[in-house]
Amino acid sequence: MHRRRRTALVLCATIVTAAPLLTACGNDAHPGAAAVVGGQRITVAQLENRVNEVRAAQRAATADDAQYEQTIARTGGLTRDTLHSMVLDEVLKRAAEDAGVGVTRKDIQTFRTSLERQVGGPKALETTWLQQYGVAPQRLDDNLRTEIEAQKLAAALGADMNTDAGQATFWKALSDASKKLDVDLNPRYGSWDVQKSSRVDAKTPWVREITAPAQPQPA
């Protein structure tokens, strides 16, 4: 799951045999959409905005242009990873709602305070989440909400994530939620590989990511 979560994505990343969570739809029924989840569009503009938030935070956290370029090189798949996270967040949210799980503002604040103590303060937590999970500071609380949802969902399902049976139970809840939401992923951003529990690139090399820099033309 691109290693972008400490709980939700880490939990799912351990599952290698299950029904698909997401599917890619190879049509143009929703022009301008990066994905459609539960009938709601995640537009390309919304996706670009999220990516720009991360890039701005990365630029602010680097000392010079050379360091920033190295950061860009290490996170070249940011757009697709970000879309993956945005879709998965909605799937997890639906699964939590179906299980009667809710997250309060107090839950988030308590969790955040605990993490800040572990890493050395609010700024250190923002830096850690940016560097390790590609989460912009302004999205940190949203990310922590997802973390808590995953933990509460597993508890509500009685799913011990240290066991195969527990992982299968958790996965089924996500798979059921995904089917209800009828996730439609724009093939520009790849497809879902069940065995690897990861987004994979579509085999259409002529389709370029819209945020990719233009290649210089030969003289």
List keywords for this structure.
219 residues; mainly alpha; Triger factor/SurA peptide-binding fold; 8 helices; 54% helix
Question: Major beta sheet, specifics?
Answer: 3 strands, antiparallel
Give the tally of structural domains.
Answer: 1
Beta-strand content = 5-15%
Q: How many strand elements?
A: 5
Task: List SSEs in N-to-C order.
Answer: HEEHHHHHHHEEE
Tell me the Rg in angstroms.
Answer: 18 Å
Indicate the CATH topology.
Triger factor/SurA peptide-binding fold
Named CATH architecture: Orthogonal Bundle
Main sheet strand line-up: 2-1-3
CATH class: Mainly Alpha
Uncertain residue segments: 1-27, 192-198, 204-219
By DSSP (H or I, 4+ residues per run), the number of helices equals 8
Distance between termini? 42 Å
Secondary structural class: mainly alpha
Mean of the pLDDT scores? 79
What secondary-structure arrangement, pairings included, does this model have?
Blueprint: H1 8-13, E1 33-37, E2 40-43, H2 44-61, H3 65-74, H4 78-98, H5 105-119, H6 122-133, H7 140-157, H8 164-181, E3 184-185, E4 191-193, E5 198-200
Antiparallel strand pairs: 1-2, 1-3, 4-5
Written description of the protein model:
This protein is 54% helix and 8% strand. The chain is mainly alpha-helical and 219 residues long. It has a single domain, classed as Triger factor/SurA peptide-binding fold, CATH 1.10.4030. The strands form two sheets. It has a three-stranded antiparallel β-sheet with strand order 2-1-3. Strand 4 and strand 5 (198-200) form a beta hairpin. The longest helix has 21 residues, at 78-98. The N and C termini lie far apart (42 Å).
